[in-house]
Amino acid sequence: MKRDKNIVVVCHCILNCNSKVEGLSEYRGALDFTKKLIDNGIGIVQLPCPEMMIYGIKRWGHTKEQFDNPFYKTQCKNMLEPYIMQFDNYIKNGYNIKGLISIEGSPSCGYKKTCSSSLWSGELSNCTNLDEKLSDVKCIDEMGVFMKQLVSMLESNNLNIPILCLDESTLQESINDILNNLNI
Ligand code: SF4
């Protein structure tokens, strides 16, 4: 059997930037570094994009506080359950899930950084404090809502998968760190 049994799990938009909020993506389709994974015999599992599935492609950019509600969290849990079962089955059968790559700054998929504002909500057409709302949106050192659910499910299933952070604000540096961590 020729397979290497090595797997990397990626947040959806690493392989398909079309799922991102329009205007955010600075790459055309998939991030190039994934070719290195393929060239090194690593299989890639792509997680679902929760924001695309729930809000669609015409959504505005959101903050963590908007997604931190029971419906969104339950939907994330439901989306992730089949993946947790796959990870468990792979690991118990000798496969190596070498890492899971986050998207830093995302209100859903950030691991160390997420987008936050307590003011970012409400009707915009007659909003009298739009500047205040806009300037309140910031990056904070917390997990996004989808990632928090994922980490909690990994822990409760005793699945030890390193989380590797992809930060598009320092893209090449974070890709280098990820490839170093994966020993490729
Ligand atoms: S960061 Fe997560 S929620 Fe945002 S586009 Fe990528 S996969 Fe979707």
From TrEMBL:
Q: Which InterPro entries match?
A: TudS-rel
Q: Which NCBIfam families match?
A: TudS_rel_CD3072
Name used for this protein in its record:
DUF523 domain-containing protein
**Domain of life, source organism:** Bacteria
* Organism listed in the record: Romboutsia sedimentorum
